[in-house]
Specification:
Elements (H helix, E strand, L loop, with lengths): L14 H5 L2 H15 L3 E5 L2 E3 L3 H4 L7 H15 L1 E6 L11 E4 L5 E5 L2 E6 L2 E3 L4 E5 L12 H4 L1 H20 L5 E5 L5 H15 L13 E5 L9 H16 L16 H28 L6 E5 L2 H4 L1
Length: about 300
């Protein structure tokens, strides 16, 4: 089940709350879907061969594009992807795999031996293909945004939470009622309730004031509250975190972009964001193929 970010209390910096952010969600979806849209084929000595079933339909209950998209999402968010080998052919090569939830897999190292387990019990290490995103020397597991960028993510989530609180709880009053006469706290509370009952909500009518009571509206612009600039900054931070040019996810930039500069940004996105992630997947999937064969994404379509 999806755990949403609460409007009150401490921030939960998790996979679900990260993806609840519009820009982060769009960045992950854009990268995952772009790589998933690429043809995945097998080659031998640089020449295409018939695509084996483990590349054509890696999981039996998902299409190839759905599988690759989920695999990329696992790497981008959690920093790890775990593939469990399914049925094998007569030579022992897997015909399909199962993509495990990275948050359900436990990795332990004892005496230099790596083991994998889930809540159901230990897994056969020979059946696990572990793909890592960002790695550190001497570390077995990979690292994602939640491991080293929690502060930046929390800052963005806090901005979303502040905006939600302001608009849903009315933390800022929209006006002030003035009375020329001295009134008690109880009278002030009754006056407030009467005003809300008569003029609050969606059905607004003309206000009738008497007894020296005056209403003064208060106006706060988004610029006054620094909401616009703050949200732009947080959006750009998410774009930087995932290596996505802002214009590709609808984030405004201060720089005026020409067609040529946008084209260069898109080419850089392919070279510096899509390609490195695709290479990790290619090298990993190649381990499922017979010696001499390798898995390759065809980037010609996206480059065009």
């Amino acid at each position: 089940s999806i755990v949403s970010q609460p409007l009150f209390g401490p921030l939960n910096v998790t996979r679900d709350t990260l993806l609840s952010n519009v820009v982060a969600n769009r960045c992950v979806a854009l990268i995952s879907d772009q790589i998933a849209s690429l043809p995945l084929q097998a080659e031998r000595n640089g020449e295409p061969i018939d695509t084996p079933n483990v590349l054509a339909m890696p999981e039996i209950d998902r299409t190839r594009s759905e599988f690759v998209s989920a695999l990329c999402t696992s790497l981008l968010v959690n920093g790890n992807a775990y593939l469990l080998a399914g049925r094998r052919d007569a030579l022992g090569f897997p015909q399909n795999v199962v993509l495990l939830d990275p948050e359900a897999v436990t990795v332990t190292v004892r005496a230099g031996q790596v083991s994998y387990a889930t809540a159901r019990g230990p897994l056969n290490t020979e059946d696990i293909l572990h793909i890592r995103c960002m790695t550190l020397p001497g570390h077995v597991i990979g690292y994602g945004p939640l491991d080293y960028n929690r502060q930046a993510i929390a800052h963005t989530l806090a901005g979303d939470q502040y905006s939600a609180n302001m608009f849903t709880t009315g933390a800022l009053p929209d006006g002030v009622l003035h009375s020329d006469n001295e009134i008690t706290a109880e009278q002030a509370a009754d006056l407030k309730q009467a005003w809300i009952a008569g003029n609050g909500g969606r059905q607004r009518g003309p206000a009738v004031l008497a007894g020296g009571v005056k209403y003064q509206p208060l106006e706060f612009s988004s610029t006054d509250l620094e909401l616009v600039e703050s949200r732009k900054y947080n959006a750009l931070t998410m774009c930087t975190l995932f290596g996505v040019p802002p214009h590709l996810v609808g984030v405004p930039s201060q720089d005026t972009k020409s067609y040529s500069s946008l084209q260069m940004d898109s080419t850089s996105f392919v070279r510096f964001t899509l390609r490195p992630l695709a290479i990790k997947i290619e090298e990993a999937m190649s381990q499922l193929l017979p010696r001499g064969q390798r898995a390759v994404f065809n980037f010609d379509a996206v480059l065009r």
